[in-house]
From TrEMBL, chain A:
Lineage: superkingdom: Bacteria
Pfam families per record: ThiS
Signal peptide: none
Protein name in the entry: Molybdopterin synthase sulfur carrier subunit
Listed InterPro entries: Beta-grasp_dom_sf (IPR012675), Mopterin_synth/thiamin_S_b (IPR016155), SAMP1_3 (IPR054834), Sulfur_Carrier/Prot_Modifier (IPR052045), ThiS/MoaD-like (IPR003749)
TrEMBL record, chain B:
Natural source organism: Actinokineospora fastidiosa
Keywords: Hydrolase
GO molecular function annotation: hydrolase activity
Name of this protein: Glycosyl hydrolase
SUPFAM superfamilies with a match to the protein in the record: Oligoxyloglucan reducing end-specific cellobiohydrolase
GO biological process, one term: xyloglucan metabolic process
Record Gene3D superfamilies: YVTN repeat-like/Quinoprotein amine dehydrogenase
Entries under InterPro entries matching the protein: WD40/YVTN_repeat-like_dom_sf (IPR015943), Xyloglucanase_GH74 (IPR052025)
Length: 94, 359
């Protein structure tokens, strides 16, 4: 199945200046599986989304078909074919 | 002819670079990152600037520039990262320290949580030094207000196997076998906040400095206490007499004179302001036996800000330069060893780190 990742402007240089990435995944893949693929394809992007132990960075939001993943099953949330994962930095800092 | 000096100023919201006549300031480089660590590696034909940058959103990284900050490079993979088996994650890099002159590609990083990393490619990628991470004392190190971090890393100038680190809390540790083993090195340094005020380890050392031409000479600014060691850190003696307070964060040693040392005292742990609200650097020219206040060119109006542990430095010019930056974003420099000062920058974000070198 294929899912689509939409990137904020600030992260696009870490993924070849692309605003969106279409990623092929196995059926029933999770957000973690998606990020594992990105770790190989675009490591400079992935390391800004997760720490070295695989935890989602605290101030990065992952909206899966419009719902933030922490309202679902977090990084274990299963993705559907055609899902859209929108990555948006949260409100943080001063 | 005056030597061209670059001053790299790490702040809460990016890196600023000052150079040239009248101190032209550029930046922010790496905007909206906190820059706890900055280094200017002068062992190369063209000095390399290294910056430990941490974004609240995107995490920590290390960036390097080989054109004095005009362009920057970062590796695709995290340059400093804890191995999976440690279960630890990098908070931020607190210190970047070029290695000895005969190992021009060796650079060390001190981190939060307290760990030492070593690079053999000039600071692009680093590996964890296991000897410190696996130390049995690690379970007893605990964070101070600023976090639990290795904030000082001092490679011996000629012995590549010899590195001294300091952390808050934990104190000073040394390796003489290339990082395989580390030994505490705090004899004489007080930890007033512990039941045993002179423990083997556990001190809250705020910063240490070593003189490159006399590597057994160290100075330490402690969480209350200012010390000198003349035996490579094996023993320490107080040199706080003559200072208005023994509390403060930075301590730096003159690049050409191991007896000349600078600090910026604050009243006390519970009252972290310059004594009498006066902006004054204190200098000793006799290894801490006596101290003098320096304020020629510094603000005469009430000064209630703080100089953090890495926000004071010297350069390698002759005569030597001394620089410091404050939490209120002003930066001062002296090109004559502290006798006279000028303002280099003002209204920057909080200054976290500063380094200067002839370029």
């Amino acid at each position: 199945m294929t899912v689509t990742v939409r990137l904020p402007n600030v992260l696009r240089p870490r993924a070849g200046d692309q605003p969106k990435l279409d990623v092929d995944l196995a059926p029933d893949a999770t957000l973690t599986d998606l990020l594992d693929v990105l770790a190989h394809r675009h490591p400079a992007l992935e390391r800004r989304l997760r720490d070295e132990q695989g935890a989602l960075r605290r101030y990065v939001n992952f909206f899966i078909d419009g719902e933030e993943c922490r309202q679902l099953q977090g990084k274990d949330t299963r993705l559907r074919a055609g899902a859209e994962i929108q990555i948006i930095p949260s409100v943080a800092g001063g | 002819m005056t030597q061209e000096v670059l001053v790299a100023i790490g702040t809460r919201k990016g890196l600023f670079l000052a150079s040239g006549d009248g101190w032209k300031v550029t930046g922010p480089h790496h905007p909206m990152t906190d820059v706890y660590a900055v280094a200017i590696d002068t062992r190369r034909e063209k000095p390399r600037v290294l910056a430990g940058v941490t974004s609240e959103h995107w995490g920590p990284s290390v960036a390097v520039s080989d054109d004095l900050g005009q362009t920057w490079e970062e590796p695709d993979h995290a340059p400093v990262a804890f191995p999976e088996d440690t279960g630890a994650t990098l908070g931020r890099v607190w210190q970047l320290a070029p290695g000895p002159a005969d190992q021009p590609d060796v650079v060390y990083a001190g981190t939060e949580p307290s760990a030492l990393f070593r690079s053999t490619d000039g600071g692009r990628t680093f590996e964890l030094v296991r000897g410190l991470w696996d130390h049995p004392h690690r379970k007893d190190w605990f964070p101070g207000f600023g976090g639990q971090a290795v904030h000082s890393v001092i490679p011996h100038p000629s012995d590549a196997d010899h590195v001294t680190v300091a952390m808050s809390t934990g104190g000073v540790y040394r390796t003489t076998d290339g990082g395989a083993t580390f030994h505490p090195s705090n004899s004489g340094i007080k930890a007033y906040f512990l039941p045993d005020p002179f423990p083997e380890y556990g001190q809250c050392v705020h910063k240490i400095a070593q003189h490159p031409s006399r590597p057994d000479r160290f100075y330490a600014q402690n969480h209350h206490g200012v010390y000198r060691s003349d035996d490579g850190g094996t023993t320490w003696k107080s040199i706080a007499d003559g200072l208005p307070s023994d509390f403060g964060f930075p301590i730096v040693v003159h690049p050409h004179d191991p007896d000349t040392v600078y600090t910026f005292p604050l009243v006390a742990d519970g009252h972290r302001f310059p004594p009498d609200g006066r902006c004054r650097v204190y200098r000793s020219r006799d290894a801490g036996e006596t101290w003098e206040a320096l304020d020629n060119g510094l603000p005469k109006t009430p000064y209630w800000t703080t100089i953090l542990r890495d926000a004071m430095c010297v350069d390698n010019a002759d005569p030597a330069g001394v620089y410091f930056g404050s939490r209120s974003g002003d930066v001062y420099g002296s090109r004559d060893g502290g006798d006279t000062w000028v303002r280099i920058a003002e209204n920057l974000p909080d200054v976290l780190s500063i380094r200067a070198a002839v370029v």
